[in-house]
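Supplementary Note 2. Why include the ligand at all?

Several targets in our set were suspected to adopt different conformations when bound, so apo predictions alone were not considered sufficient. For every target with a known small-molecule partner we therefore ran a joint prediction. The input for zinc ion is given below.
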Amino acid sequence: MTDFSAYQQQLLAMERELIERRSRLDQHGRAGVPADFEEQASERENDEVVESLSEQATAELAQVKAALTRIELGSYGTCVRCGEAIAAARLQAVPYATACTSCG
Ligand SMILES: [Zn+2]
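The joint prediction is reproduced in token form.
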């Protein structure tokens, strides 16, 4: 059995980072609305950016969590489409990759 503990550590670090990033973004989203209308308009645009960044963080966090579950279940590092092993170089670049380079 291949030892995935290095990837697991990396994924756990990513998970912590994403949770922190999302809570910072969510705090920003709850900040007060400025009284001035023009400021409100730019604040709304900014809110949309913050919201989409928060959604990105949530989506990435879900992938990271799924990868950690796959490590526990022993299915980590195997392509979900063809069942072949995912190349180490790919896992190093994207530790939560679910497909090999030919399928993904
Ligand atoms: Zn594959």
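Helices lie at 5-29, 37-73, 88-93. The chain has a mean pLDDT of 90. Comparable summaries for the other entries are listed in the accompanying table.
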